[in-house]
Design a protein that fits this description.
The protein has 116 residues and is mainly α. 49% of the residues lie in helices and 9% in strands. It has a three-stranded antiparallel beta sheet. Helix 1 crosses helix 2.
């Protein structure tokens, strides 16, 4: 199942952005989102793992094998990777945001902002 043209939930956008260039486990995703948003978004475990489960059901991400070196004593954390469908949804979300920014720039809402 796809998100189609539906906007991504903010936490889904951040999770997909984390996974855009590498596979990560849940704790690493939480830490990266917190750091990248300067503390503005904290993914609590219930929110994160609920999101990961739902995103997996919608084929936006998939669970992957944990690397050997990531195995703490007593088990391996679950690692996640973005799927082609997840990458499409992320790209659509970024394009939508860029369009919003172009409109804001045209209305002189923002100064000296370069949009890619």
């Amino acid at each position: 199942m796809s998100t189609g043209s539906d906007p991504l939930k903010p936490q889904w956008f951040q999770i997909l952005l984390c996974l855009a260039d590498r596979e990560l486990h849940g704790t690493a995703i939480m830490e990266e989102v917190l750091e990248r948003t300067d503390g503005a978004m904290k993914l609590w475990p219930g929110t994160l793992y609920g999101s990961l489960h739902e995103m997996s059901e919608r084929s936006l991400i998939r669970e992957t094998e944990a690397p050997e070196e990531a195995a703490p004593e007593g088990g391996r954390p679950r690692f996640y990777a973005i799927t082609p469908e997840g990458r499409r949804a992320l790209r659509e979300a970024v394009e939508r945001m860029a369009a919003y920014i172009r409109v804001a720039a045209a209305k002189d809402v923002v100064d000296d902002l370069e949009v890619v």
